[in-house]
Design goal:
- The protein is an alpha/beta fold.
- It folds into 2 domains: 348 residues, Alkaline Phosphatase, subunit A; 103 residues, Arylsulfatase, C-terminal domain (2-Layer Sandwich).
- It has 12 helices and 22 strands.
- The strands form 6 sheets. A 10-stranded mixed sheet has the order 8-7-6-5-9-1-10-11-2-12. It has a 4-stranded antiparallel sheet with strand order 14-15-16-19, covered by helices on one side. A two-stranded parallel sheet has the order 3-13.
- α3 crosses α8 and α7 packs parallel to α8.
- The N terminus is likely disordered.
């Protein structure tokens, strides 16, 4: 019997050795695949710093986000690249301040501007390492064919090319009759599958299924690619207005429709987590949840909360750019931890590139590798400085460690303006003068107390940092052009 077992064992071992001799890359390939980390980024639209219970939110339940934080790390000083849609997404996917690559504002339907073909996206980096790459949700980096996701590193795309309010429908869901003004000029929302429009979103009832459909497509992609490394980018269209929610969550929140939408986004997170467990990929996947900018506050009960931070979306105050961020990577990120160090979405590209053992772009980027913070959230600061650019290329503020210097400019303000209700916006003037001020964000995260006179040496230090930014990136407020600016893509 022992001889028989020995012979069987010998034959199997011999076959395996012969196979490896014939194909020595097989073992390396299997080891590489087994050790390669999958990446999932869930990116909300207009989710405020104070929206979810983990960051002080009330009247809504987010059990799956709570579990995500329990098993991972919650960042308290995390920033979007800029306080508006297209620019923010450009920063996330390229690791650059968006003004460096010529992207600003929120690109509308038919825009001739988009992401340049020479920019290197996170999807392109991961694709070069054998990752399957998919985006399921809002793109917003140009809707011309040359700008769409499949031309910038993604294998699969399902979603909208821009914001869900860029359609010829009023805030109450009734189509515009006048096609010469405002959104009446826009086409119906095109829903893309790869490079083709497969249907149009015509009503709020159609929009109510977006969160679910994005999630289901992402899950199908994970299941189809479970034998190889994958990158899933899940940029939800909501809670950007107009709000819509499926029947399974309608009326379930104490916060009204906005809370219902948050509960459905939380459900989406839960479904992704459930899929990772079912496919035995849970421990080999870095899952990141964050937002593109702060809340669009003039929409009142259809808007989020800044959690006491000043202002919101479309401003360089903290409410515009500080966002929730939770990351989970079982066995790597210590469970139930909090990171209080400064970090930003532009840091994700170099960090994930390091995790994937890939090469960074040959051109200049602005992100920093924060992998040490993921592995040890209390390991100490990596990023100490952050620049708040807005509009086309205006340097409106600079932060270094706990101090933030705001420069004189005109900007949006929600202060002393009565917000709108039930989907209709209130006023949010864009030309409110902002005076120069210094804030200590550790003591005064609401940016209410100017301490310039108490800390002239800090003002001087931040002025010097701002000057470095102006040399490299420019500053429209001073009519300066930076030496490191690259052009956006153009479609003629």
């Amino acid at each position: 019997m022992q001889a028989i077992l020995f012979n069987i064992k010998y034959r199997i071992t011999g076959s395996m050795i012969l196979l490896l001799l014939l194909n020595p890359w097989l073992l390396l390939s299997q080891q590489s695949t087994a050790s390669t980390t999958n990446i999932i980024i869930i990116f909300c639209d207009d989710l405020g710093y104070g929206d979810i219970p983990l960051y002080g939110g009330t009247q809504t339940e987010t059990p799956h986000l709570n579990q995500l934080a329990k098993e991972g790390v919650r960042f308290t000083e995390f920033y979007a690249a800029q306080a508006v849609c297209s620019a923010s997404r450009a920063g996330l996917l390229t690791g650059c301040y968006p003004n460096r690559i010529g992207i600003s504002g929120a690109l509308g339907p038919g825009s001739k501007t988009g992401i340049h073909e020479n920019e290197t996206t996170l999807a392109e980096i991961l694709k070069s390492k054998g990752y399957a790459t998919g985006i399921f949700g809002k793109w917003h980096l140009g809707d011309q064919a040359k700008f769409l996701p499949l031309q910038h590193g993604f294998n699969s795309y399902f979603g909208l090319p821009y914001s869900n309010d860029m359609w010829p429908v009023n805030y109450d869901g009734i189509p515009y009759q006048d096609t010469t003004v405002n959104r009446g000029k826009y086409p119906l929302l095109p829903l893309y599958k790869n490079n083709q429009v497969i249907e149009t979103i015509q009503t709020l009832e159609n929009q109510a299924f977006l969160t679910t459909r994005y999630t289901e497509e992402a899950i199908r992609f994970i299941q189809a690619n479970k034998q190889q490394p994958f990158f899933v980018y899940l940029p939800h269209s909501m809670p950007h207005v107009p709000l819509a929610v499926s029947a399974k969550f309608k009326g379930k929140s104490k916060q009204g429709l906005y809370g219902d939408v948050l509960m459905e986004i939380d459900w989406s997170v839960g479904e992704i987590m459930k899929t990772l467990k079912a496919t035995h990929l849970d421990k080999n996947t870095l899952l990141i949840f964050t937002s593109d900018n702060g809340p669009w506050m003039n929409y009142g009960n259809h808007a989020g909360s800044s959690g006491g931070l000043r202002e919101g979306k479309g401003t360089s105050f903290e409410g515009g750019q500080k966002v929730p961020c939770i990351m989970r990577w079982p066995g790597k990120i210590p469970a139930g931890t909090i990171c209080t160090e400064l970090a930003a979405t532009i840091d994700l590209l170099p960090t994930i590139t390091k995790i994937a053992n890939a090469s960074l772009p040959t051109h200049t980027i602005d992100g920093l590798n924060i992998l040490p913070l993921l592995l040890n959230p209390s390991s100490g600061a990596i990023r100490t400085t952050f620049y708040y650019y807005y509009r086309q290329n205006s340097l409106e503020a600079v932060r270094n460690e706990q101090y933030k210097l705001v420069f004189p400019h005109e900007g949006r303000s929600y202060l002393n303006q009565l917000p709108g209700k039930d989907g209709f916006p209130g006023k949010a003037p864009e030309n409110v003068p902002v005076t120069m001020a210094l804030y200590d964000l550790r003591r005064d995260p609401g940016e209410r107390y100017d301490i310039q006179t108490d800390h002239p040496e800090v003002v001087q230090q931040l002025m010097q940092l701002a000057e470095k930014a102006r040399e490299e990136l420019g500053d429209d407020l001073q009519k300066r052009k930076g030496k490191g600016i690259r052009p956006a893509g153009k479609a003629y």
